[in-house]
Fold HTH tetR-type domain-containing protein.
Amino acid sequence: MVTLGADRRGETAAAPSRRGRGRPPSPGLEDRRRAQIISAAVAVFTQRGYADTTMADIARQAGIGQGTLYRYVPSKRELLDLVFDYSVEEIIGAAEPALRLEEPPTTEAEVIARFDAAVHAMTELTRRRPELLSLVAVEAAAMDEELKLRILGLESTVARMTARLCEDAQEAGVLRRDADPQVCGLLVTKMLLPVGLREVLGQVDAATRARYRDAIFDFVRHALLARPEGRR
């Protein structure tokens, strides 16, 4: 049996090994807390806008004290950076599996299927979570030049992934030889932006998504893909 005195001695002996005030007891807790804060910030920034949100609002949404919030994120501006990074990771993560596969496409059907998967993933993400695109394209864009440049960087990243698919298709003889894969990647990426912005505004239904999808595929088929002799 453990005596009360032994318990107290154990507590006294263990006290020096405790972490300093304000530091999380484990890396796992730190990661969970940071995710909790980012999730709360996404919700509040979306509802109120960045300018009208206070750190107190975010702490309240996260269910933590302001002191805890400031230990993890020193300022609202730095929190917007974290939210931006999170949103970008989600957007890139939606498109990447379709655009970066081990085996390059070797037929027209495979190219179309890859574009189809990428378009579906992106439109599905903006349909399910339009707040992510809103935070990236609206709130962040209104802040400063640094974030505007990072938004352009996001567009460039998606365009580069799309261009790589175009390069693979060109090497397989599916994409036109006179087409510039970099330009093709940028054009297809630009075609995705309108539907994403309309999702943010709540102006897109299933029929509109289908029209955008068909327009992108018509462009790919008729402007980018190689035409065997005799095909019109």
The chain is about 75% helix and 0% strand.
